[in-house]
Design a protein that fits this description.
Layout lengths: L1 E3 L10 H9 L15 H19 L3 E6 L1 H12 L4 E7 L13 H8 L8 H6 L8 E5 L19 E5 L11 H12 L3
Helix pairs in contact: 2-3
């Protein structure tokens, strides 16, 4: 399992979730990247991380991402489906307008990527169903991202699960932990 943190924070923010998954017996990996990646950097940096972990593990990898980390997870999975077992997003605004959150101006400032400059074909595929099982965890009380932008379109291998909680609190929410543990325990 690779856990990808949200925008603006590092792996320290995912420590509790990673410790929980480790106690359950999973081989858990940090994201291990200090930089906030613009979409054009995902293939250069994030795919390398996925391939390294999959090669060391000798198996496919599950990707868990919170907020922007979930968008990264979906796009990495889309680019390397043979290396990915499952994707779980947590409060990730991948559907619809990427400006349906309160941090998009900071994202543009930090990455130098203007959301309007992302190629239309990239924007169009963000909400396309993934070729592997995916679970989108969202909260109507998120407070940072619109819950409508965190749900997947109906498809054979995906699901949307609503929990109650704040955006930052989702990674410390027992209901989220339960859903993640249950989905990771499902057969491939």
């Amino acid at each position: 399992v690779i856990v990808i943190p949200p925008f603006g924070v590092g792996d320290t923010f995912t420590t509790v979730l990673r410790a929980y998954l480790t106690r359950l017996g999973y081989e858990v990996h940090k994201w291990g990247k200090r930089e906030i990646l613009a979409f054009h950097r995902l293939n250069n940096v994030a795919l390398r991380r996925l391939h390294d972990v999959a090669e060391r593990a000798g198996s496919t990898v599950s990707l868990l991402g919170h907020s922007l980390g979930g968008i990264y997870g979906r796009e990495v999975a889309r680019a390397a489906p043979d290396d990915v077992r499952r994707v779980i997003t947590i409060g990730s605004p991948f559907a619809g307008d990427l400006r349906s959150n309160v941090v998009w101006p900071m994202y543009e400032s930090v990455t130098g990527t203007r959301i309007r400059s992302i190629p239309p074909e990239v924007m169009a595929r963000l909400n396309d169903p993934l070729p592997m099982p995916s679970t989108a965890i969202f909260s109507r009380t998120d407070g940072v991202v619109s819950w409508r932008s965190c749900i997947d379109v109906a498809a054979e291998h995906n699901e949307n699960i609503e929990v109650s909680g704040s955006h930052a609190g989702l990674l410390h929410n027992p209901a989220v932990f339960y859903v993640i543990a249950d989905r990771l325990a499902q057969p491939e």
